[in-house]
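The protein record filed below.
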Amino acid sequence: MSSLSTSDDVAYLGEIWHTPVRPAVASGEGLVPVSRGALVVGDDGRILDVGEVKAVLARHPGADIVDYGDRLLVPGFIDVHCHYPQLDVIGAHGFPLLRWLDDLTYPLETKLADPGYAAGVAERFATELLAHGVTTAAIYATSSHASAEAMLRVADRRGFRAIVGKVSMDEGAPSALLVDAKRDIEQSESLIERWHGRDGRLFVALTPRFALSCSEALMKALGELATRHPNLYVQTHHAENDAEIAAVARRFPHAKHYLGVYDEFGLVGPRSLLGHVVHPTNDEVALLAARGAAVAHCPTSNLSLGSGLFPLRTLIGADLRIGLASDVGGGTSLSPWRSMAAAYEIQMMRGEPVSPAFLFHMATQGGADALSLGDQLGSFAPGKRADFLVLDWRRSRLLKARFEHSKSANDRLAALLNLGDDRLTERVLVNGQEIYRT
């Protein structure tokens, strides 16, 4: 690898993969590979050029060169739904959703009211995200203001992109986790004032946990706050589990359906991200599309908690934006590779195969689109932010053998989905700056 000189532009050389356009679901087309490519990044952290190395370097003769040989350069992964307080219950087995919350999640989340404890968990969570190549994440804290502050401070210092929400809940959980509507809104406004939009990397999301944990007064107040700040994100859970859906119907008998509870209070719109959406009704799908909301697909969580099989084609048919998510700790891995593999397995069980290129798109450009950041992130189109990974496929013996015997980039991508893990992540760059190295 050559050393950098003093030129402002840097050309990174390697094998380049990205999916700038959503691929066909099952055809296998859509991955754009450049076997010997160059990615040129300006001193402002934006991509200037990408393509075959000889042609790109001819267009940028003064660029410094960093040559990664046959390593892969891919866009940074985007995790559109995860819970950092649940890191220490990842991998627990035998729990459906509501029992998961009562027996594991809520007791653990009470500990994060301690700022020092929250900071320690946030630090470990950030390291795991970066080790797995995640450069942007939509993250749930707890109902504690301190827990949200801790995660935002860590993200600020570590250099990745984060959308963080202080969970709003004033009923249906242990009293230590409940925050009344007035205080919750005050705390959310404090986070917005301090953090929303900082450095173009950090954002705040209004985060009603789900309909069962919020009074109508709290949801009304959150909807009013969202109206006052139309560029805020709203993230919550929807239609994850049959028992949850039945409980919401009993709790809100006047509502036409589960999604209608959120919609009544103005919480479903273009900046809304609904987690799971495993069991939506036809009317709910139509409403999601009409409001322009996005969906977070959480495959390892849906399998681990037994929630159900995600209706990918139904939601694609409604032209919804869909990003991929770990949902850790309900999910069993922070690895986007594992999430892609699980998403593939779910669709195979539905008898509706999906291509590796489509899954890779969901973890990159699709995630950016779901977060309304598609014009800034997700692919190597010139003008976008230079958030990317350097992956060394030789660090896995099985993957090295598969790559050496594969004839196409699509076949190697399929192998990565099944065999990739954090060992492959050699470097992580955000805005063209290295923020993690193994």
In short: The chain has two domains: 10-76+378-437, 77-370. The first strand starts at residue 10 and ends at 18.
